[in-house]
Amino acid sequence: MMDEESDSSKINRMIVDSLYLPYRTLYDSCFITDSTTYISNQRIIYSSRRSEVRSAMTFFDQLQFDTILSYYQRAFPSFIGHPVRGTFYFAFFHRNQCSFCGCDKMTMQMDMLFPMNLSADHLRILLPHELSHNAFEDTQSDTILSETVLYKAIDEGLANYASQRMNEVSTPEAFFMTSDEYGWFTRHEEEIRDAVRPILLSTKEEDWDPLSMQVPDSFMEGSPGNIGYYVGYRIIEDYLASTDESDWRVVYTTPVDKLLEGSGWLGD
To answer: What pLDDT sits at residue 8?
Structure first.
């Protein structure tokens, strides 16, 4: 019994020293967890998801994931003409809660056990999308609008737009959707416009959350989800078309209210 307790204590100490303490600031500010909770979560992975971890490690090793990350770290800033600063955190999480999520404006986290992330095609679209968020947050100077639905929609729409341009994929692919799912947006654009108009300048999380989930029927019945991404994407499309702007990358530095106004997307 004493040996088992001793071994358990050694494992706990190894988790704290090797995994928790080196990134304590990140955990405290981003994941809002302490060492006890972290140890518990890591033990869940060790006891019940060990085979998933081994399979994921094999996938990322064979993919040469470090090389892919280095490529996008160099290539994406050059592609968009803006620097990309921030912290990306890649880890095995104890539950499938989020594929790749922002913790704050300059910190992103990716769950290496999330099923969708175990696809090379998915990752080549996902990584530029997430890097775009860091670039957008870094180049936008308007702090007044930064918490609005409009800002968040354009941030997501631009991430899809940039990833689409870099990877030369279709619009539905950039949205991680089928053509039929994306087609729902185009068939219901007028209803979408009317529904989001009253909340575009809202700063309430409860107004943005249903627009940011890729869950069927979120925000509007029949939707494939992620309506906010579509709203931002369409504002960008119409802005570039209406202003006859030849360089789409100006979107990164154009204030979001100017993008909306110049797009004419609301039809006002």
So the answer is: 81
Chain centroid to Cα 45, Å, comes to 23
The predicted pLDDT at position 6 comes to 65
What pLDDT, on a 0 to 100 scale, did the predictor assign at position 3? Answer: 52
- Average confidence (pLDDT) per 10 residues, the chain, 268 residues: 63 86 78 81 85 94 95 95 87 79 79 93 95 91 87 97 96 97 97 97 96 93 97 97 89 95 92
pLDDT for the residue 2? 40
Query: What local confidence, expressed as pLDDT, does residue 256 receive?
Result: 96
**Which is it for strands 87-91 and 107-111: parallel, antiparallel or unpaired?**
parallel
One-character DSSP codes across the chain: -HHHHHHHHHHHHHHIIIIIGGGHHHIIIII---HHHHHHHHHHHHHHSHHHHHHHHHHHHHHTHHHHHHHHHHHHHHHHTS---SEEEEE--SS---SEEEEETTEEEEETT-GGGS-HHHHHHHHHHHHHHHHHHHH---SSSTTSHHHHHHHHHHHHHHHHHHHT--HHHHTT--HHHHHHHHHTHHHHHHHHGGGTT---HHHHGGGS---TTSSSTT--S-HHHHHHHHHHHHHHHHTT-S-GGGGGTS-HHHHHHHHTTT--
Residue 21: what residue type?
Answer: L
Q: What is the pLDDT of residue 5?
A: 52
* Residues constituting the chain: 268
Nearest CA to 128 among 77, 65, 56, 182?
77
* Domain boundaries of the chain, sorted by first residue: 1-48, 49-126, 140-268
**Residues 6 or more apart in contact with residue 237 via CB below 8 angstroms:** 161, 263
Query: Which residues partner with 101 through β-bridges?
Result: 109
CA distance 72 to 85: 13
